[in-house]
Amino acid sequence: MNQSNMDDSELMSVLERIKLGDIPSYAYIISRFQKRIFLYCYYLLKSHEEAEDAAQDIFIKGLENITRFSYNVSFSAWLYTIARNHCTDLLKIRSKRYKSLMQYEINNDYKMENEYTDLIHDLLDNLNMEERQILLLRSLEEYSYDEIASIMDIKPTTIRKKYERIRKKLIQQKIEGGKIYEHSYKTGG
């Protein structure tokens, strides 16, 4: 049995124990998904503190609703659906307080350990919320189109088409950005 199958069977066993009232077993769920859920929230919310709070809220909602989980979808897809809905709600609340989502600044005290962070943020800033979610779920989390469709409640063929458009859009932005960079470098401004 490979590691992935063993992890999946262990996850199912833990889920059954939690459903039967073994709440301390939920620590396994948190440890297994915490980093991935945090990063998903961080890229959507663009705030370290909000992403931390959101991840905690998502795990609480997951525990409160664990009896509603059915095996029609993977547990991670179910958890990401909760995360997507929660982040969408937070963005709606934020947009009522602020006129533009893009005015919100990332906490400067927090630096991700990835040298491409600025590039990623620049590219994500040019995508709408739905495009960001599709890109993150497909590229970062490596979900199938069917799983993304389940999470976002959109047809798999629509997800596939949108993902291809997003890729083309990002490639075009990179090409245009490269030309702008080359022009600035050559002309000194």
Mean pLDDT: 81
- Return the CATH architecture of the largest domain: Orthogonal Bundle
Percentage of residues assigned to helices = over 70%
* Series of H and E elements: HHHHHHHH
| Shape field | globular
> What percentage of the residues does DSSP assign to strands (E)?
under 5%
Radius of gyration, in Å, reads: 19 Å
Count of discrete structural domains: 2
State the total count of DSSP E strands: 0
Walk me through what this model shows.
The protein has two domains: 1-110, Rna Polymerase Sigma Factor, Chain: A, CATH 1.10.1740.10; 111-189, Arc Repressor Mutant, subunit A (Orthogonal Bundle), CATH 1.10.10. Helix content is 73%, strand content 0%. The chain is mainly alpha-helical and 189 residues long.
Summarize this, please?
This protein is mostly helical and 189 residues long. It has helices spanning 3-19, 26-45, 48-64, 75-97, 117-125, 129-140, 145-152, 156-187. Helix 2 (26-45) packs across helix 4, helix 4 (75-97) crosses helix 7 and helix 6 (129-140) crosses helix 8.
Any descriptors?
189 residues; mainly alpha; Rna Polymerase Sigma Factor, Chain: A; Arc Repressor Mutant, subunit A; 2 domains; 8 helices; 0% strand; globular; disordered C terminus; sigma factor activity; sigma factor; transcription; WH-like_DNA-bd_sf
Strand-helix topology:
Layout: H1 3-19, H2 26-45, H3 48-64, H4 75-97, H5 117-125, H6 129-140, H7 145-152, H8 156-187
